[in-house]
Amino acid sequence: MDTVLLTGAASGIGRATAWRLARLGRRCVLVDRNAEALEVLLGQLRGAGGEVAGTSVANASTGNTAVAGTPATKTPAAAAPTASAIDHLAFVADLTDPDQINALATDMPPLDAIINNAGMTDASNLPVIEQTDRDWQRLLDLNLHAPARLLRALRERLTRHARIVNVASGAGLHAIPLRGAYSPSKAGLIAQTQALARAHPDLRVSVLCPGFVQTELVDALIASGRLDPVRAVAKIPLGRLAAPEELACALAFLSSQDAAPLSGGRLSVDGGSSRFGGSQAYVPQTIAPVPCDTPLSLTVHGHWTALADATEDANEDGNVDANPQDGYPAILDASVLDSPPGGRLAATLAAARRHGRASAPGSLTLLLPRAAQGDWEHAGDDAAARMLIATLACEWGPHARRINAVEVASATPDPALSPLLRFVAGAQAQYLTGQTLCTR
Length: 440
Ligand code: NAI
Known about the structure:
Elements: E1 3-7, H1 12-23, E2 27-32, H2 35-45, H3 55-61, E3 89-92, H4 98-103, E4 111-116, H5 133-154, E5 158-167, H6 182-199, E6 204-210, H7 216-223, H8 229-233, H9 244-254, E7 266-269, E8 296-301, H10 306-309, E9 328-333, H11 344-355, E10 362-369, H12 376-396, E11 401-408, H13 418-425, E12 436-438
The chain binds 1,4-dihydronicotinamide adenine dinucleotide (NAI).
C-alpha cells in the first residue's frame, strides 16, 4: 500500500488531501502542530468520529510539550468511508523546530511520498523592513526550510522513486506586498524543488502553486479585511476561488506514480490567474464546477494512437462529439504535433477554432512538441503558441471552458502519459487552465 506523509494535514488543503488520499485507499501519515485538530481528523479517518485520543496528542493539546515524532496512535484504524481498513498515523510536530523534525524519523514507516503542505502567511500587515526578526525567520523556517529539513531527516525512510511534492503558491511567482516573507519563501520553495529534482533524479519531485483557495487561511484574510474576495476573483479567468478538494485532487495526483512524467515540474492550479495580464476585471462565475470524480467524456482529435488508450471511453476519429451527459466533456487534440517548426502557432490557432466555438463547460488539451533547443528562428513561434494558449484561457474562462497543453518529447505515443492526460483533461483539474506542462 502507498504510504504518504502529509504536513499541515489538520486544516484547509491538507485536511481535504488527507480525505482524498484515504478514499483512494492510500495510507496517510498526518503531521501538524495542531494536536486537537489532528486528533479529530485521525478519528474521522478511522471512522470513530474523533474519539481516538492518542496520549501524545492529548498532552500536546493541554499545553504540555508536544512529543514530536510520537505517533498519535499506531493501532490499526477502521475503514475510511470508502477504503478498506488502513492504519493511518498522526504525528504532532512544530515544523519550525529542526529538533522536532528530526524526531519524526523515530517510528516512521517506509514512505512512498511526502507532501510538504504546511505553510503560514504573515498576518502583521507590516512592511518588510519593519518585520521582527522572529516573525520573519519563523515564516521562512516553515515555508522554505522545513521541506528540506524533513527530506534530510526522512531520507532513509523513502522507498525507491519516492515522490516529493512541495506546496508553494502563486505568491511565489508574483510578489504580494505586506505579507512579510511569504512571497520570497514560496519563490524559494519553487527554486528549491527544481534544484532538488536536478540533484536527485532518483526522486520524483514536483511543486504545486495554488491560486486562491477557500480555506481557513483565506477566510481569515477576508475576515480581517486584508483580502477582498470580489477583487481577488476579478483577477481569475475562471471567475472563482478554488475549493480545497480541487487542490486535494492535484496533490493526490502529484504524489502518485502517475505523475512521474511531470517530475521536476511546476503545476499552477490557479484558475488561470498566473497567466492573466490584468487588463480587465472578471466577474464572479455563475457556472458551478462539477464534482471532481465526474467521469471523463473524451473526444480525441489526431493520429496519436496512444491517446485512445488515455481513456477507456475515448473515440479516435476526431469527429465524434463528446456527450456532456456522459460526463465532463474533454477534447484531446494532437494535431499540433504534425505541424512543421515555425507552424506551431498556426496549428494551435486552427485547433482552437476547431474546438473553441462550443460554449459549454469543458476542456481542450493540446499536445505540443517540445520547444526546439538552439533553433532560434522558430523559438518565437513556439513561445507565441504557448502564449496563445494562455490568451485563450483568459477568453474562455468566463464560460468555464479550459485550455491547457502538454509538451511531449516525440510524436511517438508514450503510454506513461495517459494518466497525466486524463488528469489534465478531466474534472479533477477544473481549476487548471492556461498552462503548458513540460514532461520529461
Ligand atoms: P491552513 O492555514 O488552512 O492550514 C495550514 C496547516 O498547517 C494547519 O493545519 C496548521 O496547523 C499547519 N501548520 C501551521 N504551522 C505549522 C507548524 N509550524 N508546524 C506544523 N504544522 C503547521 O492553510 P491552507 O490554506 O490549507 O494552505 C496550505 C498550503 O497551501 C500552505 O503552504 C499555503 O501557503 C499554501 N497556499 C494556500 C493558498 C490558499 O489560498 N489557501 C494559496 C496558495 C498557497
